[in-house]
Amino acid sequence: MQIPAQPFPYQFDLAHTALVIIDMQRDFIEPGGFGETLGNDVSLLAAIVPACQAVLQAWRGAGGLVVHTREAHQPDLSDCPPAKRLRGNPALRIGDEGPMGRILVAGEPGNQIIPELAPVDGEIVIDKPGKGAFYATGLHEMLQDHGISHLLFMGVTTEVCVQTSMREANDRGYDGLLLEDCTESYFPHFKAATLDMLRAQGGIVGWTAPSSAVLTAIR
Ligand code: C5J
Hints:
The protein is of the alpha/beta class. It contains 9 helices and 10 strands. It has helices at 26-29, 34-37, 43-46, 49-62, 82-86, 139-145, 158-171, 188-203, 211-218, and strands at residues 2-3, 10-11, 17-22, 65-71, 97-98, 101-102, 124-128, 150-156, 175-184, 207-209. The protein has a 6-stranded parallel sheet with strand order 7-4-3-8-9-10, sandwiched between helices. Strands 1-2 form a two-stranded antiparallel sheet. It has a two-stranded antiparallel ribbon with strand order 5-6. It starts with a strand and ends with a helix.
């Protein structure tokens, strides 16, 4: 399949492509989680949920591989560097008890993927201690086992975990494309800048396209 994309058309085939959904967890999308403790307006991020749902449903219907990630730490925080926990001046730090349980801790209510995009049997779920999906996870090996060479990215936040994951994927040889209306930032100008920098210089990190381009190709 070939779809219109920036900076030039993107080619992929279903058998070798995974849909990677970055950190669509309650911690970032709902009030009371990590995103809000950092002082952000989380309602901005919730706006992309319907577009993500449409792509996920179509991708499942087409039989494509789905990967979900969560930014998650072990309950003893042994995988959370002090520099990460102590950074800044949030209302609640990683591991503290918040309205949705302990902030960014695996298994807590706030750490679950939002119900609208909840994983189903057969989909890969990666708990990642870093911003990138490949750091300290088995994601690369799992994708290699499935023969995956192309990755379609959705999720939050555009300039942090999504961009970091796309750069990690790029360095590992994947062709990555970010779905423009299926990613969001607490800072709209950061989203715009990230889209620009990913696809600059002939797609130095990858491609971007509206979700309608993928939906038209796979439906
Ligand atoms: C952040 C993320 N922003 N998922 N995490 O801390 O982008």
